[in-house]
Specification:
heterodimer, A: 107 residues, 7% helix, B: alpha/beta, FAD/NAD(P)-binding domain, Arc Repressor Mutant, subunit A, 15 helices, globular, disordered N terminus, disordered C terminus
């Protein structure tokens, strides 16, 4: 079995993958993460090796991307203080503060 | 900046911009009917024609702007920008040789189709008058839309598609376990592989192209596991020249897997996943013909992701909200929107096309979409009956051919209920409300819940954010299985009034602006405010 590649390993390089624009960073639970224009939060975190996006409110179980198309609401994260954003659909923006969603957020 | 439609009383709204929705919109535009297309995603095309997200592929954008196809994406972004689509900078349709995609792009450029991307309907009502359908719109994350938040339509074409069928197994809620469609969306829409070493499992012809695509971009696909016995698949494979191209396509995927040395097993399923915080290992079990795991025939495979789906489930939520009749479709048995030969639903003025009427694949969906668009145009008096017959001729033939093929697929991949045998008591069935198998079994066996609504009321199953889209099919099987009855029409696990979570203040605004649609009983469907203004945790209905 191959060792999982670090960093950009899961991003597909051209010609099969996209020719990315200039990278930027955002933060996930305080950690600096690299992303590219057009990426969703879920894709950028996956490429950084992060699959745990949400912690359930009863069992405290980790959850991540499931349907990838906005139907399952399992990949909810908090973005710049806004709770319950779907990581699979939400485009990542430079300097965004993204957090694991561990309880339903109250405003 | 919202463009006023020429004649609002005759506006037709198409919901969904996949193969069916695009084909419907093209026919309406060609009949000179003002048409607005609502699409949940920033780039139209649906799951089948999915392209890299807007702004992701610099090379693609650059190449496009210099070539003839690119007029497609550049022009469409102009067009959707002017129509007030909610803020997506590069709304685009795929550059494609597909004639429907090309015609759709042409009409966007000519502004004869009004596309509102990244826009969903969060609730809808039917009133009296010339524009009876009142659609309430939300942007990404349940937020505001930039254009008008309410759309009134004389007629509606529903093309809301399908989602992957999710069947639970122990550990299936671990991060890294995702649907096959999810793995494909990451690949095609984001240029990201779901994992370095994966298994692709479940049932249905969709496993092969996704496994092949993953292998071709460097993922080690340790196994493709098809639950159905190969003998069953072969026995029901359609014969006849008219299906040859589709069969050759399937053989092509198998050859690509062979080239990448991807082992393909039938009568095999992922029956468990384990890992600390994410999936690290899956169990592949040998199955009997009814998908019951055979004891002692397991092997364990180290993975960092697993893509598991069992075909597709029609997305009927909006159709149900509009009052359309829904019944088990004859091929797959899933709740699907009932339509007549003109793709008309039971509600006058509402048409439906594509997977929500029964899953038959993208080309069939496009044919149904064209027929729905023609019928809607005819109902509005925009084309006469001879034109309806003539323009629909080829599409009717294509629809018949694709539905015949889908019927064969339904026999080849007929799903079995032996998968219940791989559940443990603590296997999570309803992911949103964290309801396990033992709780659901108790409701069915001890509390005698005989239909889906009763299961929901006793267990909270299906009351969460996804509104039973992920667990509804599994729970229906569990009811039939534990009651030892053949599957019947068990009703719906969820009949939502609110289709996607929105802030409570939007409901409140609606209630004051029109004597509207929210009753206190609906509140359990508004789970929490995505923008954090106020939360309504789910509460039991009764």
């Amino acid at each position: 079995m191959r060792e999982p590649a670090a960093g950009d390993g899961l991003r597909i390089p051209p010609p099969h993958g996209p020719d990315h624009g200039a990278s930027f960073t955002f933060r996930f639970d305080g950690r600096e993460i690299t992303a590219y224009p057009g990426e969703t939060i879920g894709a950028a975190l996956l490429a950084a090796g992060i699959r745990h996006l949400r912690t359930t409110r009863f069992a405290g179980a980790p959850r991540g991307l499931l349907c990838g198309i906005g139907s399952c609401f399992d990949c909810l994260v908090t973005v710049d203080g806004r709770g319950s954003q779907r990581a699979c659909l939400t485009p990542v923006t430079p300097d965004a503060e993204v957090e694991v969603q561990d309880v339903p957020r109250h405003g | 900046m919202s463009r006023a439609t020429a004649d609002p009383t005759s506006t037709t709204v198409v919901v969904g911009a996949g193969p069916a929705g695009m084909a419907a919109a093209v026919q309406l535009a060609e009949a000179a009917v003002p048409v607005t297309v609502l699409d949940a995603y920033p780039a139209s095309g649906g799951q089948y024609h999915r392209v890299p997200a807007p702004g992701l592929d610099r090379g693609g954008d650059a190449a496009a702007s210099g070539s003839s196809v690119s007029s497609v994406s550049s022009v469409s972004s102009v067009s959707s920008g002017s129509s007030g689509s909610s803020g997506s900078s590069g709304s685009s349709v795929p550059a494609s040789a597909d004639p429907v995609v090309a015609a759709f792009a042409h009409h966007l450029a000519a502004r004869t189709i009004d596309l509102r991307s990244a826009t969903t309907i969060w609730t809808a009502t039917v009133e009296d008058g010339p524009t009876p359908f009142v659609l309430q719109l939300a942007g990404p994350g349940g937020g505001e839309v930039t254009g008008a938040p309410t759309l009134r339509a004389a007629s509606v074409v529903l093309a809301t598609g399908a989602t992957d069928r999710v069947l639970p197994f122990p550990g299936s809620d671990l991060p890294g376990v995702l649907t096959v469609g999810g793995a494909q969306a990451l690949l095609k829409g984001q240029g990201v592989r779901a994992g370095e070493r994966m298994v692709v499992a479940g049932s249905g012809p969709f496993l092969l192209p996704v496994a092949a695509a993953l292998a071709e971009v460097g993922t080690e696909v340790a196994a493709v596991a098809e639950a159905q016995p190969l003998a069953t698949i072969a026995r029901h494979a359609p014969v006849g020249w008219q299906h040859r191209a589709t069969l050759v396509e399937g053989a092509g995927y198998a050859a690509r897997l062979l080239r990448h040395r991807v082992p393909l097993s039938d009568r095999t399923a992922v029956t468990a996943a384990r890992g600390e915080g994410r999936v690290e290992e899956v169990t592949l079990s040998r199955l009997g013909p009814d998908w019951t795991p055979v004891a002692g025939q397991e092997r364990h495979v180290a993975v960092d992701a697993a893509a598991v789906s069992f075909g597709f489930v029609p997305q009927v939520g909006l159709a149900a909200l509009l009052g359309c009749a829904i019944a088990p479709d004859p091929v797959w048995g899933d709740p699907a929107v009932t339509v007549d030969a003109h793709q008309a639903t039971s509600v006058p003025g509402v048409f439906a096309a594509g997977e929500l009427t029964g899953v038959s694949g993208a080309p069939g969906a496009a044919a149904e979409g064209a027929l729905a668009g023609l019928a809607a145009a005819h109902a509005l008096g925009a084309i006469d009956t001879p034109a309806l017959k003539e323009r629909g001729r080829l599409h009717r033939r294509e629809r018949a051919r694709r539905q015949a093929f889908a019927a064969a697929l339904g026999r080849m991949y007929a799903r079995q209920d032996g998968w219940v045998g791989w559940l443990t008591d603590d296997t999570v069935v309803c992911r949103c409300e964290e309801v396990d198998h033992a709780t659901i079994r108790r409701a069915i066996v001890d509390l005698e819940a005989a239909d889906l609504r009763s299961v929901k009321l006793t267990t909270r199953c299906g009351m969460g954010m996804c509104q039973a889209r992920m667990c509804g099919d599994a729970v229906a099987t569990l009811v039939a299985h534990h009651r030892d009855e053949p599957p019947t029409d068990l009703g719906a696990l969820s009949t939502p009034t609110v289709l996607v979570p929105v802030p409570l203040r939007r409901l409140a605004a609606l209630a004051t602006s029109q004597h509207a649609c929210a009753t206190p009983d609906d509140q359990h469907d508004v789970h929490h405010a995505p923008d954090g203004h106020q939360d309504v945790p789910p509460t039991p209905d009764a």
